[in-house]
Amino acid sequence: EKGGYDHFMLKEINEQPRSINDCLRGRLNASEGQLTLGGISDYLSKLRQADRIIIAACGTSWHAGLVAEYIFEEFCRIPVEVEYASEFRYRNPVIHEGDILIAISQSGETADTLAAMELAKSRGATVLGVCNVVGSSIARISDAGVYTHAGPEIGVASTKAFTAQLSVLSMIALKVAQQKGTISETRFREMLAHLEQIPAKVEEALKSEEQIRGISELYQDAKNFLYLGRGYNFPVALEGALKLKEISYIHAEGYPAAEMKHGPIALIDEEMPVCFIATRDGSYDKVVSNIQEVKARKGKVIAIVSEGDVLIPKMVDHVIEVPNTHEAFMPLVATIPLQLLSYHIAVMRGCNVDQPRNLAKSVTVE
Ligand code: M6R
After folding, report:
1. Structure pTM?
2. Is 201 a catalytic residue?
3. What positions constitute the catalytic site (predicted)?
4. I need a labelling partner for 122 at 20 to 30 A (CA). Which of 70, 217, 255, 348 fits?
5. pLDDT score recorded for residue 136
6. To test the ligand 1 pocket, which listed residue (7, 8, 60) has its Cβ within 8 A of the most ligand atoms?
7. How far is the CA of 246 from the centre of ligand 1 (A)?
C-alpha cells in the first residue's frame, strides 16, 4: 500500500507529478488556451464582481491560501484576506453580502474551517470550497467548489494536497482574471503553458533527493531552523518550517526574509541553519542581501535556487537547484525540496513521520 516506499509521506511526496497532473487534467488545455472549472462556472460572475475575497483555512491549507492571496491580487486585482479559520470564526468579522469566502481543506472536516464557512454563509456570503476529500462536510456545505483530486493523503504531514491546492487556486485566479479582463489573452495563455509544465518540473525537483539526504545528515541534530523567503516564496518558508517541526520536532520558524532584521536576526550564530527560498523572481536581489546578512553572522545557509544560478552558490553552504517557472507558480516547485528535507531529517531522528506525536490527520474538534 506504500507502493514500495518506507512511509506514506515519501510516497505522497513522490506522487506529486502525477497528483498535480490529475488536478490539472480535464481543466487546463494550454495549447487551446482553455481553462474549464465546471464546479464553479455558475459563480464566475460573482467572483469577477467581488469587492473582496476572504480565504479561511488552517495549517498547510492556510499557507496555500497565502500564496493564493498574492496570485489573486496580482492577476485579478481583487483584495484578498487570508484568515486563520479559528480566529475568523470568533472575532465577529465584518462580512457583507456579496463577499466570497473560499475555504481550503484537504480533509474537508476541519472543525474551525467548517465553522468559518457556516458563519460567512449565515451573513449572506457565498462560500466556495477547495477540498480534497470528495463528499466531505466542507464540500457539502459549499455553494460550489473545485476538488483538488490529489487522491487519498495518509501521511499526517500534508504534501501532495498542498501542491494540488496551489494548482486549483492558481486555475481559479487565472479564470477570474480572464473573465475580468485583468490579464491579456497572451499572458493568460503563457500562464497556462507555465502551469501545464509544473508536473514535469516537480519531477525534476524530486531528483535532488540524494543531495538533500546528505544535507539532512549534517543538520539532523540542529535545535532550531529558520526558513526565509519573500513574495510568493514567503508562504513556502512558513510551510517548510511547519513541515520540519511537525514531523522532526525541531523548532523551526518561517518568516518573510525582510522581517529578519526586526528580531529573528538576533538568533543567528554558527549553530543556526537558515533555509532561504531564493529563486529567480522579483525579490531575488533583496533575498541575496538577506543571505549576506545571515552569512555575515556566520549562520549556515541552505538555499533553494533556480537552476543555473551562479551568484548564490558562491555565498552559501549548500544550494539545492529547482527548475525555473513563472514566479507565481514557484511555490509548487520550491516546496518539494523542503518536504524532502523535513522527511529525511525526521527519519534520521527516528521519528514516526506518518503519525507524528500529538497530531491527527484531520482536526475535527476546535
Ligand atoms: O484537512 P485540512 O487541510 O483542513 O487540515 C488543515 C491542517 O490541520 C493541516 O494542514 C495540518 O496543518 C497538517 N498536518 C500540515 O501538514
Report:
1. 0.97
2. no
3. 361
4. 70
5. 97
6. 60
7. 11
Q: Is the pLDDT of residue 127 over 90?
A: yes
Output the ligand 1 site: residues, CB below 6 A. Answer: 58-61, 105-107, 110, 113, 156-158, 242, 246, 362-363
The interface predicted TM-score (ipTM) is 0.99
Q: Is the pLDDT of residue 366 over 90?
A: no
C-alpha cell at 313: 552558490
Q: Are strands 100-105 and 126-131 parallel, antiparallel or unpaired?
A: parallel
Q: Using the predicted structure, report yes or no on whether residue 191 has a pLDDT greater than 90.
A: yes
- Residue 158 and residue 8: Cα distance in Å, rounded? 11
Cα–Cα distance measured from residue 46 to residue 49, given in angstroms and rounded to the nearest whole number: 5
Q: Which atom of ligand 1 is the closest one to the Cα of 165? A: 3
Strand pairing category for 28-29 and 34-35: antiparallel
The three grid cell numbers given for residue 205, joined into one nine-digit string: 525537483
Closest ligand 1 atom number to CA of residue 362: 1
- The active-site residue, picked from 2, 46, 286, 361, is 361
Average pLDDT on 255-282 reads 95
Cell 474549464 sits on residue: 36
Task: Return the pLDDT at 189.
Answer: 98
Exposure string of 11-41, with b = 16+ CB inside 10 Å and e = fewer, is: bbbbbbbbbbbbbbeebbebeeeebebebbe
